[in-house]
Every structure is written in structure tokens, then in C-alpha cells.
Amino acid sequence: MDYGNTSQNYEKLDIQTLTNLLTNPDNLPEVHRGAFTALLKIEPDERRKRVAVVVKSMLQEPSRYDSSLIVEAIEILATDPYPDATEAMLNFLPDMLALGIKNRDAISQDVREYYYQALVTRTREDDLVVWSEMLPRLDGKTLVASMLEPAAKALETIEPMTLIDRLSEPDRTRALVSVMRGMAFRGKRDLIKQAAEMLVRTNHGAEFKRGIDLLADQWGKAKKAGRDKVAQNLELGLSIIDNEPRSAVDRLTGKRPWAG
């Protein structure tokens, strides 16, 4: 449908129609821009809710939106002083982290850093209530991503390892194994050791064994690829969590050197 190119035409549309125009990635950039400009003129509480919906949609397919529009939408929430904006920003934290891990070129590192830094500075008393309610809801995948996303250094303040330790099983064990895998490639041996020690504190049977097998398989691939530093980092973690005696076959084939 053609809404014309003037801002007045968009301002005549109802809020839901504006939202629909913005959350449809098939629309042209000029349609997104016109609808967004009109959306900013509605009353603040409703605007905040709608912008949050729009940002979440944009993060699903960022390549189909003008990057400047994504930045503006994030800035609107980041500079909004009300706690509802903190909740809105936390709601799309998993989406932003996923982009930072899998498709980091979709949104520039500077923008991602700005978002994370703005998020953690929201520490008014009302904001802290939102944090206390929402942080325990973050799943293991999101918490691990917060440690692996290159732009998310600011998220160290939420203490992701502490939050991972509070997860229910088997999410906790899976998350700790993922931390060990990810940090092996980043050379963060202190975090590998911490994750391994947390794992052995509560050995949860089959999931724990699967984690060992997964890390051992990753070690084998690293050795085969000549990535000795990665292999050494994995050995550090495996030496803590894999307490099975090394068999004669393991010795002959060079497997499981961490087992002694």
C-alpha cells in the first residue's frame, strides 16, 4: 500500500498500523523511516512500548533495515529514564547477543557496545527492581553469549558466571561446558578453570559425561588442525573434570593425555 512520502500522511495512521509497517522487513526504507518518524510523536508510554517491539523485530533481520534507523531506535530506549525502558532493553538482550556471536557484521561493534554500556548504567532504584526480576530469567545460552560476544565487555558487571551457577540442570552443565569451549579459543584459562571447578562440584550424570565427550572431541579437532594453544586450554579444563583412569589404548593412541 502506498502511504505517500509526506510525514503528514504517516501521522494520520493509527499506532498499530505504524507498528505493522515498521515490523515488516519487506517494506521500503522510506516507509520504515516515515512510520518511525510518526511513531516518535505519540505519547511517551505508548511510544516506549512500540519502539521496543520495533527494535526486537529489527534485530531479527537487521540487514533489511537501514542501520541508522536501528541505531536511533536503540538510542530512544537507552536515553529513556523510566524503568520500563530498562525492561524493554533487557527483553531484546538475547537477540543482540545472538547477533554479536553469529552475525556480528549485521550491527556494528560500536552500536552493540553502546547498547550494552547504556544497559548496565541503568541503575536507579526502580531499574534495580527490573534487573532483579529479569536477570534470573536469562537462560544459559544467553549468559554464555554475554561472555563470548566481543562487544559485551560491559556485561561483566552482571556476573554471568554467578548467574550460570544458579541455573537449573541440565542448563547449568551445558552452559559451563559451552564456557569452557568458548574460552579455549579465547585463551581465558582462568575462566576455563573456574567453569571446570564449578562443573565438578555437582556432577550431573549423563549430561556431565556428554560434556566431557564434547570437549574431548573438540580437543581432538584442535590437535588435528594444529591449534596447539586451543588444545592446551581444553586440556586444562579436561584435567579437572575427567577423572577416569587413562586406558592402555588411550596411551597407545595418544588420547586423553590430561588423564595422566
Low-confidence stretches: none
Rounded to the nearest angstrom, the radius of gyration is 23 Å
Number of strands: 0
How confident overall, as mean pLDDT? 92
Work out the helix count: 16
Largest sheet: none
Q: What percent strand?
A: under 5%
Distance between the termini: 70 Å
Description:
The chain has 16 helices and no strands. It is mainly alpha-helical. Helix 4 runs parallel beside helix 6 (83-91) and helix 12 packs antiparallel against helix 13. The longest helix has 20 residues, at 205-224. The N and C termini lie far apart (70 Å).
Question: What is the topological layout?
Answer:
Elements: H1 7-11, H2 15-23, H3 29-39, H4 44-60, H5 67-78, H6 83-91, H7 93-102, H8 109-120, H9 125-134, H10 140-148, H11 160-165, H12 171-186, H13 189-201, H14 205-224, H15 228-241, H16 248-253
Helix pairs in contact: 2-3, 2-4, 4-5, 4-6, 5-8, 6-9, 7-10, 10-12, 12-13, 12-14, 12-15, 13-15, 14-15
